[in-house]
């Protein structure tokens, strides 16, 4: 189902090293994954930055809540963010 | 007062629960610097100030309403067992994240003590924490510890003992949410009280209400016969989602993190440079996780590890060898000729002595494993490898059980519990036996040393790489034949680099040494004796020719070089025929046709068969067979003359891959909860080993 404006949505996978992001919401059908992310601090309003990427650009390490979290891009694409320039 | 008082150590993975458990109880449970090392409950009793405490190390988890299977053990424990006191272990360097669990524990209403562990790191980073403020805000005593240096342990025990002898506060702390959430909680709570009148305390019913709104499957299932309640909860959730554009669990999580954030703003102070904290980790990661250097470095580290295991190990190995030789000679001379002499010298001494020489290699290997897992590099390695492993349908975190498998496959199979998805876990379990465990190391060191003396270290390294490749290829295959889909998210918290303590590294090495010596004096000793008897009996063999007479005739001839050679050939032919007609020879010859395409002799088949019990026995078998047949000749020399290099490669490959040992088969059966999969593992690995060894002997035959 295509929603209007979905194309414009920015996700965690789009975050660049020089940017700071703010979590908007997790968009997924997978409840277990969502709950897991929430308990790790991926909640709306949380600030997040991109620390580094693995050799092939996937997975990547993000920094949030003062710790490092490794995530694959496939998962990062389910996390919608707002980008604030650092 | 209850006795013993149950005290549960509860915290996020890698917060240091097990280190604390060891410091409190004197246990030696496994500690490593990556999350989810502990996968099951461990308990020990200690007495402090006259109070008997039953301390339980609970596997770490992030949320009490998590549905991830790897966090289930911990969650279920909190829900089901209700410990008398919860010791909430927090990594004080990561309070923003770890206070989330604390807010949930507050709601259980159980008596709590908050432990700020890793205080050494926090102080080094110039962070000051106001513990008095934390204590009043969290409604629990707060104790600062450094489990690593055993600091604050007495203070913690004092706090636990004091809490055990007082009755808990009547109205424990309560977290407040916004008015919409509070309204929903209250309504559900009222509904619950109506359903279970008098049964539920206000704390308990509030806790249940929150859990149900959070969508905790476990609690909901428990109440599933109350259709109205479930309907009401769904209604509340929809209303809340409508109001806030966020699901209820998300709302509650946000509120919890907001509480933590507000509290830390008051209670935590940064002095000096805020980036100083994990600066070293950042510098090291710039290097180890470098986009171009990262993977080559990983390979390089592994190569150094196996090369050193081989070359450095050779030095003490020579000393042990010399010791074995001297004592064998001594026993050889003192014992009177006869069967007992042969049993001891050619059975026990050859088998046990031939295996014990590998002790240094094993200890060195475990030294490296302790460094890899203790520093936090292993977590990085799984991050680096995730993409590659993903191609093979595996998960980056699978690397952790796989590397653990280099030590022993049994803990490797158990370590697959870090994998969330059930099917992915099964696949990881089935490929774990391909990992080149330290029991196989003696075989490779022996063969590589005999056939590829100059590049032995690299050949050993190659065998390890091959074990990884075999595991990956099998994963592809298993992904096709096991039904279902294995979509598992790679979610991994990377801990800062830490220096493993000398004590923990030494303990690791000591443990492995003890384990190996126990094996040598146990299964190897018994195995050597059994093998000796099997190759010695039956004694009434009818030979193809009358050796006795022919030898007597030869001996009667006048002395000449020709006579010497003829005698030698005759004697060796007799020994060989005797061995071939022994029980060992006969059974090995029976299965030998299976291995003939691979170029293996019946002796090799015999070694393979005995290796089913435990792979170290392979070396012991060769040692016993050749000791009886060839006397004191160096095992390496004998082997070298016994087969061409291509066959040696094929044999190494077969040994690497064929059926897991008995203990591994047993643990697969147990962990997969199905003997079918254990049986599958045996059949599959045999087939795989056979095919690959065949390919190796064919290809090797044309080149070598
Ligand atoms: N600097 C420092 N390191 C610590 C301290 N306590 C534990 N560690 C280290 O933290 C890492 C994790 O410790 P564990 O005791 O295995 O943690 P755990 O909570 O049992 O973790 P899992 O069982 O893996 O979930 C290890 O590398 C420990 O050496 C401490 O007080 N200070
Ligand atoms: Mg642990």
TrEMBL record, chain B:
Annotated residues for binding of Mg(2+) 2: 23, 25-26
Annotated TM spans: 288-306, 343-372, 392-414, 426-452, 516-534, 648-669, 675-696
Listed GO CC annotations: plasma membrane
Keywords, sorted A to Z: Cell membrane, GTP-binding, Ion transport, Iron, Iron transport, Magnesium, Membrane, Metal-binding, Nucleotide-binding, Transmembrane, Transmembrane helix, Transport
Residue intervals of the FeoB-type G domain: 4-166
List of residues binding Mg(2+) 1: 22
GO molecular function: ferrous iron transmembrane transporter activity; GTP binding; metal ion binding
Main subcellular location of this protein, as a coarse class: membrane
InterPro entries xrefs: Fe2_transport_prot-B, Fe2_transport_prot_B_C, FeoB_Cyto, FeoB_GTPase, G_FEOB_dom, Gate_dom, GTP-bd, P-loop_NTPase
Subcellular localization(s) per the UniProt record: Cell inner membrane; Cell membrane
Record's bilayer topology term: Multi-pass membrane protein
SUPFAM superfamilies documented for this protein: P-loop containing nucleoside triphosphate hydrolases (SSF52540)
Positions with a binding annotation for GTP: 11-18, 57-60, 117-120
Keyword NAD part of the UniProt annotation: no
Family: Belongs to the TRAFAC class TrmE-Era-EngA-EngB-Septin-like GTPase superfamily. FeoB GTPase (TC 9.A.8) family.
Function description: Probable transporter of a GTP-driven Fe(2+) uptake system.
Name under which the protein is recorded: Ferrous iron transport protein B
Organism: Magnetospirillum moscoviense
